[in-house]
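Kindly review both lines to help learners:
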Amino acid sequence: MNEKYLVITTGGTIASAVTEKGLAPKMSPEELVTYFKPSPEIELDVKPLMAKDSTNMQPEDWLLIAETIKAEEENYDGFIVTHGTDTMAYTAAALSYLLYRFTKPVVMTGSQIPLGMQYTDAESNLQDALLFISDTDLTGVFIVFNGLAMVGTRAVKTKTQSYDAFESINYPYVARIMHGKINHMYQPKPESLNLPARNKLVLDPNIFMLKAFPGMTVDIFDYLLEHAHAVIIESFGNGGLPFERRNLLPGIQKLTDAGIPVVITTQILEEGQDIALYEVGQRVVEAGGITAGDMNTEAIVAKLMWLLAYTQDMAEITRLLQTPMAHDMGFD
């Protein structure tokens, strides 16, 4: 029986060409799909959705991608989304929540060098994505890039130019693809989380993210109190924030007292956080900061937008944020 996959194109470097103002998406979806080399048992359809540099990708675009995939769930065995690399990890995380418990695999890929250019990595990434999706029994969202498949909520772009642009942070790679062969490396365990049925895909993008630095003004919290539905703070180390001189803790307390969740993550990519290890972290928790374990920032942003669209209850947001979902937290 033939397998049938839908290729959804959104633009990005993979479809870009040189213009007077630099690289920009120009390649037609019909031309892009010719670079796949499927076996006779595989049928590919293509659906052009947008032609964007992923820097311009917004939550509304995540919703459009998710709605398109969901509408075609019964018609295809899986979905390949071509996407720019700069915000691919954010989109992959967002799709992981918007399509939570989706019954088919969704694979995202792109390239560091456009199709048709010398030394492009695009053709190999497209072939690897096709090989992975046709040889996996996993469902959910994945990124396939430079011969590695990784869970969508764990991918982070760590390099701007090299082929190995993405890493799986605090979680094993799912598979390695090399010379047309796939080596399955890790099988994520099924999750048993039951969530209420949601009839409509929605997000609340009204969040604000701060990166802590020595000397950061405390006045920013007054602005956030009036304009943000939730705040993410990238703290130092294990979750600490300063409480001497420019004391940030009263600002956090002010937000949480007003019912605005304040999620505390770390600026350090590897190994997550142990916020109770130091006094500077314990004081953050006492002020109402919500710890995020070993989740990466991209996943926190997407998950928080997804949660805020359905509830403003602080306790429920805290519970669900700290509940592993789409393999975004903890190592199962």
